[in-house]
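Structural prep section.
Before we set up the soaks we want a predicted structure of the protein with tryptophanyl-5'AMP in place, mainly to decide which crystallisation condition to try first. Input record follows.
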Amino acid sequence: MSSKQIVVSGIRPTGMLHLGNYMGAVKNFISMQNEHPCFFFIADYHSLTTHPNPKDLHNSVKQVLAEYLACGLDPEKCTLYIQSDLPQIPELYLLLNMHAYKGELERVSSFKEKVRTQPDNINAGLLTYPVLMAADIIIHRAHLVPVGKDQEQHLEMARTFGNRFNRMYDIELFPEPQAFNYGGELVKIPGLQGGGKMSKSDGENNVINLIDSPNVLRKKISKAVSDVTPTEANSVPSQPVQNLFDLLKVASTKETLDFYVDAYANCNIRYGDLKKQLAEDMVTFLTPIREKISDILANEEYLGKVAKLGAEKAKESADATLKEARSAIGFRKFY
Ligand code: TYM
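Run finished without errors. Recording the tokens verbatim:
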């Protein structure tokens, strides 16, 4: 992998970061900042599709900024910024929208899901969400985009819009961005309620937040959905049981995981013991991060400095790309 490959990724400020965000995205960010030019941001424009109230929006952005830093993002190594600090992004979004078609946008799975789950708020921002995301990525001419599995289709759209622009204006401006995870496969961390994915939309009890206190972690994990003990040796675990194994993979040792996988295969697994062990391992895993988050959140001056430095660095890169895009389209100054 060439060290010149540019990395871009972001997270919506929809509250506190959870273990899915950490394992699918932030963990990769931390390693990648040592090897590549990296742009990591807080996608506050994207969160507007659900109409947050202004005070919550500001607090959520501040929370994610502090959490990024507590997890180990270093504003000297990477460019760490807030999406709405860059006017170049909505401008590129506007330009890309002229070549984004209603039919292809309506076929995007995340849009179809929103149509199902929030029929009273199917706004144009939701429909064009993948265009804004493409603008985020290609504004820095990214090659690699560390994301979880749920973002795969959005990455495909980013490639489509970038390629289409290149073709329309006969220019080699945008490289093809690829979804990335160390280890190859994109990650999907399951939730605690037995479903497929850890996500806030399935309720607070489904997610493990990075700032959950030990007691909250113990309580949530003790309520995690499990299953009956298998009656046949070596049966395939049901989804809720597989989820518990997947969570053990994150926080526990290989010995612990193997112990419970074997116990399941031998039909003598005790889910209560598994959950107690998982809770303690999760407490150990998350405590150092939680403590750092509260220290950083208290330091408004530092957060302000980080956001300002990031905005300056990101604007420089975004400006250079936008100038070329405008020129390719045919915009010329009359004065
Ligand atoms: P968002 O804010 O929903 O999630 C942020 C990141 O966390 C990953 N993630 C997960 N990974 C594994 N298992 C899970 N259960 C899990 N839940 C979330 C997501 O895959 C993502 O990497 N549209 C994006 C934000 C965005 C963006 C971008 C990302 C806007 N512009 C440009 C990359 C590049 C989103 O809503 O992610």
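Observations: The two ends are 44 Å apart (CA to CA).
Flagged for discussion at group meeting.
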